[in-house]
Write the structure tokens for this entry.
Amino acid sequence: MNKATADFRNRFPALSQQVYGKPLVYFDNAATSQRPDCVLELQKTMTEEACANVHRAVHRLAMDATELYQQGRQAAAVFIGAPVDEVVFTSGTTAAINLVASCYTRRFLHKGDRILITEAEHHSNLVPWQLACEIYGTELIVAPVEQDGSLDMAAFRKLLEKDVKLVAVAHMTNVLGVENPLAEIIAAAHSAGAVVLVDGAQGIVHSHVDVRSLDCDFYAFSGHKIYAPTGIGILYGKRHLLEEMPPYMGGGDMVDRVSFEKTTYGPLPLKFEAGTQNIAAAACLAPALKLAAEVQNDAALQANLEATDRLLAEQLATIEGLHCPSLANPLRKGIFSFWIDGIHPTDAAEIMDKLGVAVRTGFMCAEPLIRKYTQHGMMRASLMPYNTPEEVGIFMDALRRAIKMLR
Amino acid sequence: MTIQEISEQIVEEFSVFDEWLDKYEYLIETGKQMPAIAPEAKTSENLIEGCQSRVWLDCREEDGVLRFTADSDAVITKGIISLLIRVFDGQKPEDIVAADLSFIDRIGLKDNLSPTRANGLVAMITKIKAYALAFLQKEENGQE
């Protein structure tokens, strides 16, 4: 581990704790990341000092809370290169996708129109579209992925020709960690007359996102995968689409004039933000995303992440009977999902937990993809820039010990 | 032996392990040694499907007592269910319905299992008790 990484790690109190008397090795970052000092401090401030509702009162606390809340939105807008009023707060990626599946479909799609997703989507980018299809009579179609987790672009292009009006695709897939060729996907979709929603839950962490140069129509991500607290997410949407879409929920803060006869709605993005939001978590996007931008531009931290990823890839390849479909895929970033012949992943993970190592197992909210590999679950190790080659050593020792106990 | 006596025996066996890894070793060994379930008993009615692992639990009556066999794709799960089978196999349905299962807490199983695995354990116990209850009700109906 280089010095930059050691210093960076020290900013995350959770990483220095012990579990079962063993140093914690946290390799479940694709589920949620740990939080740095700057985020923890602001969470405390939002609870102890600026605890008030936003937009609604003239008193000092409300003004402070509103200011910090707006800074969170501003930071999210800057981080993805979007105009600030096209950045909608949601509770997370799932809520953001549900919003589009509900409101865009209701306004723009008709019976028989097709919605195209891929075989590697998280349930959050699959089930909302199934619900929309039930209500609006649209049809869901699925583009296959290759054995190594790459999207089959030829098949994707072919499916696009079939009355597809919306494409919903992961920036980076949550099981296999493979980055999709967004520029190519978006250009092809647009020329076929379809809009594109990008599920950025994983991609936001490992790629630089600029929604304007990407030209995607919607981009959704969660704060908690990128150093911020749980309960806050972002939906970016192109202004003309958001303006045309009906509101998702009704309530306070999303209205212009209200009467029993007729209600008019507030401007973007408030139209989609009925009710009191997770104010503290929204504010925390500011320090979290500022840090994330610094990390993306820090050569030493990136070198450490690459070295850690490379070492884990090399080490996993030495385990007999281990299958990691995207291991050698050059588009894979920071995520390894695999299975081992004769070993149930949950058995192994439970033993590894007792050795201090945190990983994820099961369907990982992508049951159709896991079943494609005729598995009933996999183990996933997912990295952040605060993980180290030393931790890979502990992880591998734990994995080998679990295999030895279970075989 | 009664359910209570077997439970006490299990608590005693677990008391010699200080470390959780040793308890896992024990569960893995008992899981591996568990008698196999008949292939035809691996039906969808006998399946308890969890997010992480699958369990098949078969129950039949033999001279007034219930006989259990089980299988799982995860060996630690198998170890856990083999403990339950050791307690309940060959017991009368009324004793199974009335059984106190505090031994599970006393060996620290619930506290140290992952939540999904703990839910699975609850599901297994529920299924065992449901089998026993169904047999009791069948008996009562038969007597009427």
